[in-house]
Every structure is written in C-alpha cells, then in structure tokens.
C-alpha cells in the first residue's frame, strides 16, 4: 500500500541510497538510522510498517537490536546483511527476524519481499468477517489458544515467534496433508514463486526444537524429501 513506512537500520550511506531509490519509486516512505540507538528512537516516533536491519552496527549487534525492537513493535523485521552462514540465519530468525537476505542483494527482490511481508501483515490485521468458530486447537500434547495465541506443550506454556506460531497453527489445521515449501511460503509469508526456502527451513528447525522430543528425528513435523512437510498428529478444533 503506497505510503507505508520502511526503516533501514544500516550505517552505510551507499546502501541507503540504493534502497531509498527503489522504495520511494514504489511509493513507500523511507527512513534510515545509522545505529541501534537511532533505530529505537525512530521506531518509537514513527511506528514503521517494516524494518530492514543490518547485523554490523556501530553501537550494538543487529541480533541484540532485533530482540529490543521486538519488544517495541510487531512490524516485520528483515535482516539485510553480509553475514550469511546457516548459523547467522538461525540466530537472526530465532531472535525475532521474519526474513533474512544477504548482501549483495537484488533491489528488485528486496522490494518484492517487502511487498509480500506487508501484504501478509495487512491480512493478519484484517478484522474477521465473523467470529471464529473455534477458540482452541489441540493435538495430543500440544494445545493452542487461538484467541490469546498461547501455546502449551504437555501443559507448559512455550514461547514461539510470530512466524513459528503461524506455521504451527497452519500445520495443525492441515494434519496428515503434504504441504509444499511453496504453499507454506505463500500462506505464511505471502511469497509467490521464485523465493528460496532457506528462511522456511530455519523457522521449521526452530519450531521443531520447541515441540519435538528429538528435533534431529522429528515425529510431528516430518520432511518428505522432494515433496514438502507433513504434520503427523491428528489435530482437533475445540
């Protein structure tokens, strides 16, 4: 939607110029903060609709800043950084990031991802046409309160990120169905075809660590090589 505010947290002026050129050309409002302190001030003052975040900042590591930003806003956070090992992605998505892009990056792909995240966020905030018919989902040891978004495993409350919660509830609503990576990226992130599945793989790995007895041998969210994923426990609406 034109006019939505994008905040770039990066101390490189050249990156800011490129991102600004493409985003303002699409009708977005663009702001840049060069450090973590400035980013927190801008988030509180401007309430950006999406945040682009580098890991290397003058005053704070981007991963720690992401944790702090998550306490201030539920806007999508997309890491945009040259740190691109698998562990970097795992950390970035575990501390509250919604997506992870590495530098050098394609400005056109960045714009497409931003639009997808904003589109998905608008859908999640859209009022329901009618009240939900169920307030809970349950699957053996997992119970989800759809009103409060609380998730319980064996009766104990567990903490999930927004994307982990969306993945889990989507899996539970479609038990024993083969769900492709493309389906999940489209339903959870709003991405169409053409995006790699690394972000999805990391989020599923993080979710498995929280709900599986042995994440290295998952029994609930099973990978079907060449096909996708399947949630193997029967779920019921309550």
TrEMBL record:
<dbReference type="InterPro" id="IPR001867">
    <property type="entry name" value="OmpR/PhoB-type_DNA-bd"/>
</dbReference>
<feature type="domain" description="Response regulatory">
    <location>
        <begin position="5"/>
        <end position="118"/>
    </location>
</feature>
<dbReference type="InterPro" id="IPR016032">
    <property type="entry name" value="Sig_transdc_resp-reg_C-effctor"/>
</dbReference>
<dbReference type="GO" id="GO:0000976">
    <property type="term" value="F:transcription cis-regulatory region binding"/>
</dbReference>
<keyword id="KW-0805">Transcription regulation</keyword>
<dbReference type="Pfam" id="PF00072">
    <property type="entry name" value="Response_reg"/>
</dbReference>
<keyword id="KW-0597">Phosphoprotein</keyword>
<dbReference type="Pfam" id="PF00486">
    <property type="entry name" value="Trans_reg_C"/>
</dbReference>
<dbReference type="GO" id="GO:0006355">
    <property type="term" value="P:regulation of DNA-templated transcription"/>
</dbReference>
<dbReference type="GO" id="GO:0005829">
    <property type="term" value="C:cytosol"/>
</dbReference>
<dbReference type="InterPro" id="IPR036388">
    <property type="entry name" value="WH-like_DNA-bd_sf"/>
</dbReference>
<dbReference type="InterPro" id="IPR039420">
    <property type="entry name" value="WalR-like"/>
</dbReference>
<dbReference type="GO" id="GO:0032993">
    <property type="term" value="C:protein-DNA complex"/>
</dbReference>
<keyword id="KW-0902">Two-component regulatory system</keyword>
<dbReference type="InterPro" id="IPR011006">
    <property type="entry name" value="CheY-like_superfamily"/>
</dbReference>
<feature type="domain" description="OmpR/PhoB-type">
    <location>
        <begin position="133"/>
        <end position="233"/>
    </location>
</feature>
<keyword id="KW-0238">DNA-binding</keyword>
<feature type="modified residue" description="4-aspartylphosphate">
    <location>
        <position position="54"/>
    </location>
</feature>
<keyword id="KW-0804">Transcription</keyword>
<feature type="DNA-binding region" description="OmpR/PhoB-type">
    <location>
        <begin position="133"/>
        <end position="233"/>
    </location>
</feature>
<dbReference type="InterPro" id="IPR001789">
    <property type="entry name" value="Sig_transdc_resp-reg_receiver"/>
</dbReference>
<dbReference type="GO" id="GO:0000156">
    <property type="term" value="F:phosphorelay response regulator activity"/>
</dbReference>
<protein>
    <recommendedName>
        <fullName>Transcriptional regulator</fullName>
    </recommendedName>
</protein>
